Amino acid sequence: MSPPTSPRYDETVEWIRARCLPSLQRVHVAVICGSGLRGLVDSVDKERVKVVIPYKDIPHFATSTVRGHPGNLVLAHLNAIPTTFMISRFHFFAGHDHALPT
Fold this sequence. Notes:
Layout: H1 7-17, E1 29-33, E2 51-54, E3 72-78, E4 81-87
Parallel strand pairs: 1-4
Antiparallel strand pairs: 2-3, 3-4
């Protein structure tokens, strides 16, 4: 299956990659962390760089509207595996379009 593509998607991906070291530009695992998994990001490899990007700074990216949810994209190594963590999810009830979370 080919990855999704559109000018907006491509711009967002390039914007994120420009803020990461080469070792984090192509991740192997993605974890969507709701409230119960938020602490998982504390398990990343401490000796390696961790990149934290607020959703609000990412072009064409939704923001977390639930109070107390940080809304950060975190790129780091977890057991030496390049990993992306989405700290906060997007919900229909929070006013997001139904196409966004799918």
